[in-house]
Amino acid sequence: MARLRNRIETATAWLAFPVILMASLFATMAIMDAGVPPFVAFIGPVVVSFLLIALLEKTSPFETQWSHSRGDLGVDIGHALVSGGLTLGTLRPFVLAGSVAAAGWLAATLGRSIWPENWPLLAQLVLALVVGEFFMYWVHRLTHMYDGLWRIHAMHHSAPRLYFLNSIRFHPIDIALSIFIPLFVLAILGAQQPVLALFTVTASVHGAFQHANTKIRCGPLNWFFSMAELHRWHHSRRPEEANSNFGQNLIVWDIVFGTRFLPADRMPPVKIGLGQLPSFPMNYLGQLGSPFRWATIKRESGESLGRL
């Protein structure tokens, strides 16, 4: 019985991510084929994926210390509602409307659309991921390089543990920079709404798996996707480890620019978070206002570290 359980756990570790991602994509495509608008069609598959990932965390956790709330569950639910729901839902129509207008101007100027609309939909998705990830990579990397941007992104790294809801722990400003910039660029290039919907499905499902507290094995896929085995190092308290693996969905630009990091001689750290900022607020409203109290947070953190 134990051997069978181990085999099931091993198979799940290897297959959960690719199977659930592909199922979500094909389900979204089927719903769109049934006549449902693209940016409604992806909601059901993404919600089901999140529920399955939450179940995997319960049945096969990667780190048992991350299985219990540390007062962060309510905070992350708040981020999910505001950053994941209100911000995305409110801004998306304006971003898409502006990008469609810009795309029309660009196509008229060049005499044709740049985007290969005749490609199969999944091939267009792969292209969208590679192109969009270039901008997501540099936005993410720059937020780690400059203090004025780090104040916006630090909230994501304040998580004391990794689990699937961490994928939505972002400040609304961070969401606007990291999500809407690539969507805007892709739409300007001529990517149509079905492609952008599949891009959103991939980013949502991948993001949940990327932060999930479940045993994930990707093997060769770790040279394409920026999955959990890589991303856990990005949440390290040590800068030399955390300043790596900036890919949001793909790891290809980390490979190109030399920031991929996956040591084979040790496991990723269990203690994560903002070790150098002990005064960073851990309640929802405090985190929402943290970019505007940055100097105070840094000063109080310095004073706290000095007393240790």
Overview of the structural elements:
The structure is a single chain. The protein is mainly α and 308 residues long. It has one domain. The protein contains 13 helices and no strands. It has helices at 2-33, 38-41, 43-59, 73-110, 121-145, 147-157, 172-189, 193-211, 228-234, 239-242, 252-257, 284-288, 294-307. The mean pLDDT is 89.
Break the fold down into its secondary structure elements and pairings.
Elements (H helix, E strand, L loop, with lengths): L1 H32 L4 H4 L1 H17 L13 H38 L10 H25 L1 H11 L14 H18 L3 H19 L16 H7 L4 H4 L9 H6 L26 H5 L5 H14 L1
What structural class should be given to the helix and strand makeup?
Answer: mainly alpha
State the major sheet. none
SSE order: HHHHHHHHHHHHH
* Poorly predicted runs of 5 or more residues: none
Tally of structural domains: 1
Q: Any idea what the radius of gyration is?
A: 20 Å
Determine the mean pLDDT: 89
The number of strands is 0
Calculate the terminal CA-CA distance, rounded to whole Å: 50 Å
Question: Count of helices?
Answer: 13
Coarse shape: globular
In short:
It is built from 13 helices and no strands. With 308 residues, the protein is an all-alpha fold. It has one domain.
Name the features.
globular, 13 helices, 308 residues, mainly alpha
